[in-house]
Amino acid sequence: MIRADSAVDTGTNRRNIFQSRHQRWTELARDLRAAACLPGEFILDASEPVDTYIDVVLFETRPTILRRMAALLADLVDATADRLAARTQVMPLVTALSLETGLPFAMIRSLDEGGGSRVEGELHAGERVVLVEDVIVSGAHTAGAVRALRDLGAVVPGVLAAVDRSRGRSHTAADCPVQALYTPLDLQIPDQARPCARTDASQATA
């Protein structure tokens, strides 16, 4: 028995053979916006109010989006990379990218997870490791992950992200090049910080 959604996926793959990278990028932007860009008032990690929240769970749990995103990101992976790495919250995306590129990956645990090593999985000093992120906001989490890799002797040639809404701060925080498939402008969503009456930003962090 063939599931209906499997038949649709096959059709999508067949179309991708004849589509340019720009066409695939544009279609994915449209689908990402429809699936995961939620209007409303939100306070991001950088404590700045915005009108649209990009819910990573809504796109990282959709194989039709995840597969196409990994295919586009694969073109941006440093050709000299030995390994990928990602924070545990980004496991769906880095797994898809690992399957697409054939590169192994390591997992970076957050400091508040407790127990175990900061970096799980195989990782050797001197390896060139590309950090994978889903949505970068302030760049603080990204910078912490880069430091964790460097502390173990890894060389981090760059960071790859699905979306970068840090407005350039991620490059400074991570102290290495950051490439992203999309910015808020690409997704046609507002990303201008605006005044907010809230005093407790922790009520709606993203």
Largest pleated sheet: 6 strands, mixed
CATH C-level:
Alpha Beta
H and E string: HHEEHHEHEEEHEHE
**Chain-averaged pLDDT:** 84
Structural class based on helices, strands and sheet pairing: alpha/beta
Number of helices: 7
Taken from the alpha-carbon principal axes, the silhouette is globular
Number of domains: 1
List low-confidence stretches.
1-11, 194-206
Rg computed from alpha carbons, rounded to a whole number of angstroms = 17 Å
CATH fold label: Rossmann fold
What is the CATH architecture assignment? 3-Layer(aba) Sandwich
Strand order of the largest sheet: 5-4-3-6-7-8
How many distinct beta strands? 8
In whole angstroms, the N-to-C terminal distance is 41 Å
Fraction of residues in helices?
Answer: 25-40%
In terms of DSSP E residues, the strand content is 15-25%
Describe the protein's architecture and organization.
With 206 residues, this protein is α/β, with parallel strands linked by helices. The protein has a single domain, classed as Rossmann fold. The protein has seven helices and eight strands. It has helices at residues 4-18, 21-36, 56-60, 63-74, 91-101, 140-151, 169-174, and strands spanning 37-43, 49-54, 83-87, 105-108, 119-120, 129-136, 159-164, 178-182.
Short précis:
The protein is an alpha/beta fold. The chain is built from seven helices and eight strands.
